[in-house]
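Record type: monomer structure entry
Structure origin: computed from sequence
Chain ID: A
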Amino acid sequence: MNTSLVKSPYPYFGGKSRVAKVIWAGLGDINNYIEPFAGSLAILLSNPKIPKLETVNDIDCFICNFWRAVSNDPEGVAEFADYPVIESDLHARQRWLLSVVTDEFKNKFDTDPHYYDLKVAGYWVWGMGASIGNNWLNTKGLNSAPLLSSGGGGIHGLKSNILDWFKDLQQRTRRTRVCCGDWKRIVTPAVTYMNKGLGPQDMTGIFLDPPYVHKGRDKVYNSDTNIFNEVCQWAIANGDNPKMRIVLCGYDGEHGIPDTWQVYSWQANGGFANLGNDRGKSNRSEERIWFSPNCINNI
């Protein structure tokens, strides 16, 4: 398998895999890639050329634990993840995960760069593909039926060997730095290499896909949805940096983004939103991607 194009092993609400080619057409050939809101890592994994440096972050410790675990021990993760979809197990594993991931677990994960839990990683990625939308690890999912409307999500739609997939992911993310915490920690000059005197051909690409500000997004993401405004302000403030190419995702609206930025309009296919209310279905037509002035001008 071409490990530069290996796919993420789990679905993610609001993921941008459908427009990955558009995003990389704007970012182009970069030396340093930064993704402060990792999600499924679908954009990083779809990069046709692996850069010298890759740094990703997510505030969700389940996400970071999975990538840390699969990078160190894909066999161990596969042992807990390779299991059929059984409704009673879906509920039992969800309750177990909610009981295990306490402040103590988060503290271990935050303070020990070598810490990860294989069982948590395996159960989590198994449930991400077995659940409907954002039911997984949500109160409403404790008694909900598993995903039955398709052939299966994530690892459950795979017809080949899960372990082989995880080994490909291990190889692909071998040099990817995974952080767990506030997004601003990985857009500092030290990480963007703005204070390192990059050469004339060196470029840092930053992909920003924060929780959007529309009503209802708080039911999808376990974070402050007002963070979009904060991210937007940072992107605008840094958009003219000649050594940065910034891509920002969001919904259409008055965000103060300069006219010098390119904008790409697209419509999500709905995904799990098709199973929800009218709000989720209408939002998918408001998707926008903004490209800072130094992005490749071919959008």
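Annotation 1: The radius of gyration is 19 Å.
Annotation 2: The CA atoms of residues 70 and 170 lie 6 Å apart.
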